[in-house]
Amino acid sequence: MVLENKVWYKSVLEYIGITLGTVIIAASINLFIQPHNFAPGGVTGIGIIVKEMTNGLIPLWVTNLCIDLPLFITGLILVGRVFGAKTLYGILSLAFFIWLLPIEDVTNDLLLAAIFGGVLTGTGVGIVFKFGGTTGGTDLAGFMLNKYFPGVSISSFMMAIDSLVVIASGIVTRDLKIPLYSIISLYISTKVIDLLLNGFSYAKAFFIISEFPEEIGQLILKELDRGVTVLKGRGFYTGKDKDILLCIVNRSQITRLKETVHSVDNKAFVMVTDANEVLGEGFKELKKS
């Protein structure tokens, strides 16, 4: 009963955290992004472009749902349970709060709007990631594309999609300032997400020492779809041989990996370090210099 209560309490906290994150993202969009037609990449950027092209006939939250829900369903079919309930909740929650919160132009200064829009969006997305959720969009598209083109990292796909959206915003608005300010907002939000989750490093390397390396390794493969390398080590004090698990994950999987290890062995020794550049399957392609 106590264990069930802890699991329930943890789950409630996660959904509260995701809700808080989506409220912050929606506030950023409605106060700083939408009023100036910034399109800082992703589904939100596409939605703003569609809204501009239809003279406001199709609101942003409608476009978000029309793109994110099919992406989510496709992800379930092609990739599996990695797209879980928290992803669906994040998608619906963000669309709801974009619809609910008023659209207000709080500043006429485009640079201030781009900066604060980026900071708030990054903060909201970082909080959502912290609690194991996502808000759909380019995260889902990048993950699915990476499954079929593993030589190209998820972040590369996301950057490509975001870049196309930013370019499209300039074409639609016929105003060069819009894509330039959108780039500023996108850059700032990305840096804030990185800062909240793992400093300025894109990936983290986990070294895991446990009495149950086989169970942890299998669960990582199943739940996170990440590779695990077994390193051989020996405890200096005990003199016993030990298997050390090495696993490298991207920013959105940091919290989930910690939870995965804890679920098997809450006494495991885990060292987390920055991986400033990761080359290989699932990350950046290894190319000749």
From TrEMBL:
Its main location: membrane. The chain crosses the membrane at residues 12-33, 87-104, 110-129, 149-172, 178-197. Keywords: Cell membrane, Membrane, Transmembrane, Transmembrane helix. Residues 226-280 form the DUF2179 domain. One of its GO terms (cellular component) is plasma membrane. It is found in: Cell membrane. It comes from the Bacteria. Pfam families: DUF2179 (PF10035), YitT_membrane (PF02588). It is a multi-pass membrane protein. This is DUF2179 domain-containing protein. It comes from Gottschalkia acidurici (strain ATCC 7906 / DSM 604 / BCRC 14475 / CIP 104303 / KCTC 5404 / NCIMB 10678 / 9a) (Clostridium acidurici).
